[in-house]
Design brief:
Layout: E1 4-9, E2 13-18, H1 19-26, E3 39-46, E4 53-58, E5 66-68, E6 71-73, H2 77-88, E7 94-101, H3 111-123, E8 130-136, E9 140-148, E10 153-162
Parallel strand pairs: 2-4, 7-8
Antiparallel strand pairs: 1-2, 3-4, 3-7, 5-6, 8-9, 9-10
Length: about 170
Amino acid sequence: MNNEWKLEIAEYGTLRVCQTLLDSLSTFCQLLPSQPESGGVLVGKHLNSGGAMLIDDFTPPQASDRQGRCSYYRSEAHNNKVLDKWKESNGHSTFVGLWHTHPEAKPDFSTLDRKDWINALKNSRYEGTRLFFIIVGQTHIRCWVGNQTKTTSKIELLGEYKIGSK
């Protein structure tokens, strides 16, 4: 796959994000005041070669989510969608993080976002010690990595992708 966003993570390897996923997430950009925040779960695969992680799927907003202009509540319905994707892939596709939108050009996480991410790192069931967090802005998509150890939760920005670049 040539059309990917590749991010290098020290002591981990390459995170690959599929172009089709970036294009799909971009359709949720909040360009108009009437467009609410959207979000869901990132689905990916742990790789043995060609990178450490491939994020190639997601759950779109569900009917049971709560969406406002500057707020988003992700419902439990996403868990069932991820479980279905896991079963369909014979255990290869799994929960690897969270995504949502912001009505700003280059998005940054809020205090509430950080609390949600730390909660996911501490309380969610996932492979490894890392989760990825994507926020889709109006002109850029930004990605953070969260790392959970026994004593701390660390979140750092990995990079940003300009929407429309290939």
